[in-house]
Specification:
Helix 4 packs across helix 5, helix 9 packs parallel to helix 10 and helix 12 crosses helix 15. Helices cover 48% and strands 15% of the residues. By secondary structure, the chain is α/β, with parallel strands linked by helices. The chain has 2 domains: 189 residues, 3-Layer(aba) Sandwich (Rossmann fold); 175 residues, 3-Layer(aba) Sandwich (Rossmann fold), CATH 3.40.50. The strands form 2 sheets. It has a 7-stranded parallel sheet with strand order 3-2-1-4-5-6-7, with helices on both faces. A 6-stranded parallel sheet has the order 10-9-8-11-12-13, sandwiched between helices. It is globular. It is built from 16 helices and 13 strands. The longest helix has 18 residues.
Length: 394
């Protein structure tokens, strides 16, 4: 009996060591916990998975059972000396680890991980494009940042874009080749978890009470990074105008402040600041979506805008910019309203319209949820990713 148990344990250890080793590299641990949590969960079952991110002092490490984690100093900002140090660390790490595949998400992580993986001759190198930083830049900086994306694409053996319109844009800009870049399903990185993101009357009542909102208040919500490229100053200016015409409107902004954007946003709100609430990063965006009436995404650049389909699954229509990525998630006039980026008057009019017309708001929210559940369920997208890995690794 003892010999049989020993043989069984040895067999289990042998199978464990035979699992192909893969690595996912991102800049922020938040990406692991939210954006690609489904990837980590699924890949961690089939493969010997290691995740890499930059855990700063006081930040929580993204621990998941059965998944290894390594912290490396990957910074979002361009810093040549620090980036070279991190590139060296990644090359050394990959060379020692015998990975058969490396996956990266976000621009800086992609540049460093794909370059290091190619230098170490990792067989499968997968990068996921989630939007282009250089779209809002001009001159030399635009050219430099665009070149970095081309380097990422050149180093990768497989490329995913998180929306069809983003893929078309990347191909038209000659960043990627049409035969090398694909999209999982109808778009997004990992789809939407319908069991998590759904209308929740109890959470709505509890959170509104906590924030001091009345049930008949009309709450406009933004969830994400508080950054100027996200159109936050436009949102503040538009809400200030809407607030002057409708005393029932409220603004709820949830996310981490970047580059002092929050202070500038509060200044742009003026007297309307008293009708706004600002909260930091949350691991439970669904609670705030349940408490809101309209989601807002006035961004200047997006790869897809996953928060749009998450809000849609909670029954919210979206007011968003008419840019690639966002247009994949919103059916104009059906599940939300679109406006040209930077057009504050148009944004204010869209917000005013949904504030004035509750029947339209409710019907759009219902259709938004139907679209999210129909077009962006997480399981089929995850299956496609796993099939991609199985075919690539063999």
């Amino acid at each position: 009996m003892a010999a049989a148990r020993l043989k069984s344990r040895q067999s289990a250890r042998q199978k464990e060591t035979l699992r192909p080793r893969i690595c996912i590299v991102v800049a922020s641990p938040m990406t692991l916990r939210t954006l690609i949590a489904q990837h980590v969960a699924a890949l961690g079952v089939r493969y010997d998975l290691t995740t890499v991110a930059n855990v700063k002092n006081g930040e929580e490490r993204p621990v998941r059972a059965g998944v290894n984690f390594v912290s490396l100093p990957i910074h979002r900002e361009i810093a040549p000396l620090r980036d070279l140090v991190c590139l060296f660390l990644l090359v050394r790490f990959f060379a020692r680890s015998s990975f058969v595949a490396v996956q990266s998400v976000t621009p800086k992580a992609g540049l460093l991980a794909m370059t290091a993986a190619m230098a170490c001759r990792v067989p499968v190198r997968l990068h996921i494009f989630t939007g282009q930083v250089w779209v809002t830049r001009k001159g030399a900086m635009r050219s430099i940042l665009k070149l970095m994306d081309r380097i990422v694409a050149g180093c990768a053996t497989h490329i995913l874009a998180d929306s069809h319109s983003q893929r078309d844009f990347l191909v038209s800009e000659r960043v990627v080749s049409a035969d090398k870049c694909r999209v999982l399903g109808k778009g997004s990185i990992a789809g939407v978890d319908a069991a998590r993101f759904k209308p929740d009357a109890a959470a709505r009542a509890q959170l509104r009470g906590h924030l001091g909102f009345r049930e008949d208040d009309i709450v406009f919500l933004y969830v994400g990074r508080i950054h100027r490229d996200k159109g936050m100053l436009d949102l503040a200016a538009a809400f200030s105008r809407v607030s002057a015409a409708n005393e029932k409107v409220r603004l709820l902004v949830v996310g981490p402040d970047e580059n002092g954007t929050l202070e500038a946003m509060q200044a742009a709100l003026g007297r309307a600041t008293e009708r706004a609430r600002f909260l930091s990063y949350t691991d439970e965006p669904e609670r705030y979506m349940s408490a809101a009436d309209v989601f807002c995404l006035p961004s200047y650049r997006e790869g897809f805008g996953v928060a749009v389909i998450e809000a849609a699954a909670c029954g919210l229509p979206t007011v968003g910019t008419r840019i690639y990525g966002v247009t994949d998630a919103i059916d104009e006039g059906v599940t939300g309203l679109l406006f040209e980026p930077g057009e504050v008057d148009a944004l204010a009019e869209c917000m005013n319209r949904l504030a004035r017309e509750p029947d339209l708001r409710i019907s759009m929210g219902k259709r938004a949820r139907e679209k999210a559940l129909r077009d962006f369920p997480e399981d089929p997208i995850t299956r496609e990713l796993m099939q991609l890995y199985a075919a690539a690794i063999g």
